[in-house]
Amino acid sequence: MSEILNGAFTTFRRYAKPLIGVMLAVQAVGVMIMVAAIGVTVAVTQDRFAAVLDLPPGEDADGADVAALVLSFIPAAVLLLVVVTLGAAMIAALCPAVVQEAVVGRPTTFVAMWSRAWSRMPSVLGTLLLTGLIVGGPILVLYAVCIPLIVVSADGSGPPPALALLILGAFLYMPVAVWLMTRFSLAPAVAVCEGLGPVASMRRSSQLVSGGWWRVFGISLVGSIVAGAIGYAIQLPFGLVGMVSLFPAITESSEGNADPERIIVGLVVYAIAVLVGGVLSSLFQYGFPSLVNALLYVDLRMRKENLAEALIATAAAAGAAATDAPAPAPASATGTEAS
After folding, report:
1. Which residues of 123-148 are buried (b: 16+ CB within 10 A; e: fewer)?
2. How do residues 254-301 score in pLDDT, each as one tens digit?
3. Cα–Cα dist 22/24, whole Å
């Protein structure tokens, strides 16, 4: 585990420019798309905003107007879901591509990694969607069956039996969901490194994880915990800066002598600080677990398929000597150096 985690840190540090550059570009594109979508939605629904918010004192908004305003933002919400999913697929394709270069010590560039991740993004997206469907499908069916029964039987006589069925079913299915997610966790790395399609990548991931499920689960879990903790540590100072900028305005507002301009400035500084902190922390929270999974893929192939010899040949062909570019991948899996 220590070798896998150390390899992920080393890869993140040595290939920070292309790795962080592509992730920032992905987030920037996503933010621009969402800002444009929300701006168009707000511009189109000006009349609905006026009907809900611009009312005489003491008059409440009509329920139909509120519902219409909420429904007008559904297309933007759907677009947000699509953008987030595509961004996640792009990052999930990027990290194995970086590891593929790192294990043989080859340098790479932003353009090369963007091109590589973009070319494999459809297959990686397919693995993510299929995994989500397989893992989440049964629980969605459970909710679809139980929620209507809960609503129908909610007569105030006590918790309906359907609620107990929902809780019990979700509790019993949780281990199955974790087992399935771990079995398919290497599918994005397979799709990038071996050029397979979504279904073939998931089959291949299941074969590699077979016989080492607990090891893959444990290392992946620790990697996610480490990424979350470091991401939180990165985001915390920005949140504190934002709260410090907002605190004087809140204090003045509670005392009844608030300055509107100061409140606006405080809110803007707070929003910018939280946004910057969220972007910087997400670089590690999203990238590090994917690097860990990609290195697990390399490690399992070294253990089961003697990948080390192929890596040595590739490194030699590329002119990457071990003394010039040591590989971050774990070398103790077969007792042979990876570079």
Report:
1. bbbbbbebbeeebeeebeebeeebee
2. 655 656 666 777 778 888 888 888 888 888 888 999 999 999 999 999
3. 5
pTM: predicted TM-score of the whole model, two decimal places:
0.79
User: Tokens 């103790």 label which residue?
Assistant: 332
User: CA-CA distance, 310 to 312, in Å (whole number)?
Assistant: 5
The pLDDT, as a whole number, for residue 117 is 94
Contact call for residues 311 and 327 (beta carbons, < 8 A): yes
d(CA 157, CA 255): 46
The full DSSP string for 221-288 is HHHHHHHHHHHHHHHHHHHHHHHHHHHHHHHHHHTT---HHHHHHHHHHHHHHHHHHHHHHHHHHHHH
Q: Which DSSP symbol is given to 169?
A: H
Q: Which two tokens stand for residue 308?
A: 């080390």
Joined tokens for residue 325: 């570019």
Q: Is the pLDDT of residue 324 over 60?
A: no
Kindly give, in sequence order, each residue whose CB lies less than 8 Å from that of residue 77, ignoring residues fewer than 6 positions away. none
Of these ranges, 31-40, 124-133, 265-274, 318-327, the one predicted with the greatest mean pLDDT is: 124-133
Alpha helices in the chain (DSSP H): 2-14, 16-44, 46-53, 63-72, 74-102, 110-152, 161-183, 187-193, 198-209, 213-254, 260-305, 307-317
Q: Which of 74, 109, 85 is nearest to 30 (CA)?
A: 85
Angle between helices 2-14 and 16-44 (to 10 degrees): 70
Residues 6 or more apart whose Cβ sits within 8 Å of residue 129: 85, 198
- Give the pLDDT score at 24: 92
**pLDDT grade for 330, boundaries at 50, 70 and 90:** very low
